[in-house]
Amino acid sequence: MPQGVPLTVPDDNLTTKQRRNRPLLMVNTGDGKGKSTAAFGMALRGWNQGFKVGVFQFVKSAKWRVGEQAVLERLGELHSQTGEGGPVEWHKMGSGWSWSRKAGTADDHAADAAAGWAEVKRRLAEQTHDFYVLDEFTYPISWGWVDVDDVVETFANRPGHQHVVVTGRRAHPKLVEAADLVTEMTKIKHPMDAGQKGQRGIEW
Amino acid sequence: MPQGVPLTVPDDNLTTKQRRNRPLLMVNTGDGKGKSTAAFGMALRGWNQGFKVGVFQFVKSAKWRVGEQAVLERLGELHSQTGEGGPVEWHKMGSGWSWSRKAGTADDHAADAAAGWAEVKRRLAEQTHDFYVLDEFTYPISWGWVDVDDVVETFANRPGHQHVVVTGRRAHPKLVEAADLVTEMTKIKHPMDAGQKGQRGIEW
């Protein structure tokens, strides 16, 4: 089969061009590495196409992806300076979110996650970005902090042409069902199994 | 178990710091998406840490990763201009390789792949880069164009502190055995199954 030729043509009354340009909901899940890294790699491609990129990190942890953040924010700056690529916003759930005026109640992760999702919903409605990375967003769904039906319905009805990629382990079956592209990253072998720790340039 | 704590401490007479800084051989394999994208995402992190990044694309195809190439080369340029990050070289096996003076014998992919590997070997010996992406390098190994024992031995004996990531389907068992970190990307669901084609900002 020639590369890029679909296996079947769906009965959806869309032209190939319309299908080609359908905005995608993507999920990178599984216990292996590369879920977020691949999502940020896609954001890079989007930036290069002039997409407005929005990253939302939903888990407070040491895994802040400082390298990707630094580079993507630098690319966003480059866009402001030279017009190359697209603008980039990177938001993380630290003590509250950066757009929020209140300092955040240090320990109410559930409320912070819900506030993050409410903001993403607003932005989807307003078509603020072209490419959303909802990093580790599977967890607040798993933990019941964000309602999966609301998530799936919001994604299904998002206006315009907004791509969304969700990362994290154990993606909810309803999210998998709703997604266009789902990839599972599986660990075959990991250096931490052999006593190694994370290192500069590899883990961060 | 606290995050980042090894399961076992190997009996290798290395200190934790030595182990932590051991250069890694990584393989992203499997039939799913994200193998190369995750590798380029790692290259991004490496760039941010000032690593000298070298990308070598081993398969002649339409999948040229133009987005990642444009952005990584732009970052390399930024390094020349401002000193940020590290230098980036991106080589692809078109009609021969960019470093080669001869135009390349348009159809001898096997010879071109072998020439590419010979160059990577030279660079590993000379410690030209800190982070190598050998994109789709599993294929010339599978096809016997590059000797897997030579590859494994070269990686095992590479001097200094050079990270290598190899991408592609069906990684050779000897390569998997030799690697420190192996991740398999599995397709759970793909829009092409539903008749969609690749699109701007997503596939390239």
UniProtKB/TrEMBL annotation, chains A, B:
Coiled coil: none annotated. It is an enzyme of class 2 (transferase). One of its GO terms (molecular function) is corrinoid adenosyltransferase activity. Gene3D superfamilies: P-loop containing nucleotide triphosphate hydrolases. The keyword Ribonucleoprotein does not apply. It holds the Pfam family CobA_CobO_BtuR. It comes from the Bacteria. Transmembrane segments: none annotated. This is Cob(I)yrinic acid a,c-diamide adenosyltransferase. It comes from Mycolicibacter acidiphilus.
